[in-house]
Amino acid sequence: MSTAPDLTGQVALVTGASRGIGYHLAKQLAAAGAHVIAVARTVGGLEELDDDIKQERAQTGKGEATLVPLDLGDMAGIDRLGGAIFERWKKLDILIANAGVLGVIAPLGHVEAKVFEQVMTLNVNATWRLIRSVDPLLRQSEAGRALLLSSGAAANPRAFWGPYAASKAAVEALARSWADETKNMALRVNAVDPGATRTAMRAQAVPGEDPSTLPTASEVAARIVAITGQDRTETGQLFHVRDNRFKAFRRPE
Q: Over the stretch 21-66, which tens digit does the pLDDT of each residue have?
């Protein structure tokens, strides 16, 4: 079983925190002692998360949350988020860019332009804008950690998964470039492949699949939280949740 590091005094930002993997990432980071900045569009989901974190705090004395209702299609809003974090904390210790959309499972020629553009806006453009907004804050941490959620579809694009696969390949490219830019700093940047997980997005993508055969979002989150400690030295790599280890990116052979 994965063990969470002690994150007391750490400030962590999680996007897509109102449900699925993001919800459990935020909850478990708080349980490990972090102050979690939870970002999502769905206010109800954020409030439920806050209730869970407050309940945990009442029992253990650990963890707090700041709720940020924000549609990541609002690029100026992402910019303001970085400014607000600076005003309050002057730094950011952990970024987990988890939010993303599937789009549709369909032949490329049948994908509507607005759907393709939405996938790229939320999965790629918003991730870059988030990087730009919080990079200076992560550099102020003694040991900043950035994890960008990707997918196995990035390296193995399958028929009908074109938009999503392309967006996650772009996310991995952003992670690798950012890691190379910061390799001589304390900041560590990696991509994460959570693998097939028992979430609403997975059910949308593969409706005939038996969800009981998949790990839960909580189980996946636990393995991701376990690699957020300040002692981790890996950067520019892909953390494969199913295998519970980091893997190096390779050039095409």
A: 999 999 999 999 999 999 999 999 999 999 999 999 999 999 899 9
β-pairing verdict for 238-240 and 245-247: antiparallel
Q: Classify residue 227 as exposed, middle or buried by CB count within 10 Å of its CB (0-12, 13-18, 19+).
A: buried
Per-residue pLDDT tens over the stretch 166-196: 999 999 999 999 999 999 999 999 999 997 6
Angle, CA 40 vertex, CA 86 and CA 29 arms, to 5°: 70
Give catalytic residue positions.
164
CA 70 to chain centre: 15
